[in-house]
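How a chain folds remains the central question behind the approach discussed here. For one protein, we set the task of working out the structure tokens from the amino acid sequence alone. The sequence in question and its structure tokens are set out directly beneath this paragraph.

_____
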Amino acid sequence: NNGSGGLAITTNNPGHCARSAEIALNNSGSNVQLYQRNVPLNAGTRYRLRFMARASSNVTVPVYLHKDSAPYTDYGLSQSFDLTTGWQSFATEFTATGFSGAVSNGRLRFWLAGAPNNTTLLFDNIVLEEADTVAPSPTPESTATPTSTATTVVVNQPPTADAGSDQTVTDSDNSGSESIILNGSASSDADGSITGYSWSSDTGVAIPDGVSPTADFPVGVHTVTLTVIDDDGAQDTATVMITVSAASVSTSTPTEEPTAIPTEMPTEMPTETPGSTPTPSADPCNDAATNMIRNPSFEDAKNNWLFYNNGSGGLAITTDTPGHCTRSAEVALNNSGSNVQLYQRNVALDAGTRYRFRFMARASSNVAVPVYLHKDSGPYTDYGLNESFNLTTGWQSFSTEFTATGFSGSVNNGRLRFWLAGVPNNTTLFFDNIVLEEAE
């Protein structure tokens, strides 16, 4: 019961033997059922269901026998029974359908969602048997009235789910995601009404329940599943594809994989040397042929870089005291969310190759920043770089080496990610001269 109330066993005036089931519905929800699972059946066999029941007021109770799990196939029993305030014995017959051979996955379900609030229902002596079995007469001590066999069969038609048309949008502001309105309004139920709409995504996006919820989808392709349930508990599902494309920031093709022999670089990189700016190389501000990172010093503004924050704050390019050349990236985190990242996609790597990763950074206060290199899409396989760096208020140069793992051959689907979700609110971070190269 997704409302309030519950099931108890009572010895007060049972219908058969010493006890009966008592269900008190203080607030009848949209999904209320008394049921038993793992009921065995043989296809094509004629069965008889009989039971005793009464209620605190006259009420109609549908009874079903169907597959215990989705798609909840009807196994032949779908019938309503009219309960009164006195014990009655009910019986009906049906033929097991909807499967072949033998099953043991049936669910016998008394559907109580239509019962008024503050109703009490009692059930006893529930029997499912092959129809050629002779049903016993009531024992002399039974208070039950003579058997009343229902003759009207109401077969519930399952609902039809419709998740709407596929949607393709562009992440026009380079935030890393787009807000999408889903639409399940075309879903229908031929013989009743739909009481529930639930949504799920194969990429783990959190989607609220409802006919037309709104959710934020990161850049990528998402398969979204809508599940609807009708007022008789039957369900149906439908899917819709949501594609969020990254904004086109450059007409150039991705950087080619580095040559086997990189240009000469210093054999050692200093670590944590606050306040110093590296001595420029012969061509310090242009991308080196050996660097797998494009636009490493942000001289080409935000091109090839993406920023996402589900809190508030953003990425800007500043010329104020850069660490290298004339510009650096400035990330202002007014309200640091649970998913905050500065990242670059389509990073090329060769399996088993040793790489050196180096960059410059500072922050408005001391803070630790983890950096990762992993597959750009699910399951986000670790490609070998997973390390945290301690930023201070002065520029520092950081360097580390790692071996590319988690794949074979060559890939160009790496994501280099500065993970900023743990950074305190109202912190500003600066990044510059980000280099990924083979370590000779």
The chain is about 0% helix and 50% strand. Confidence is low (pLDDT under 50) at residues 137-153, 248-282. The CA atoms of residues 339 and 421 lie 5 Å apart.
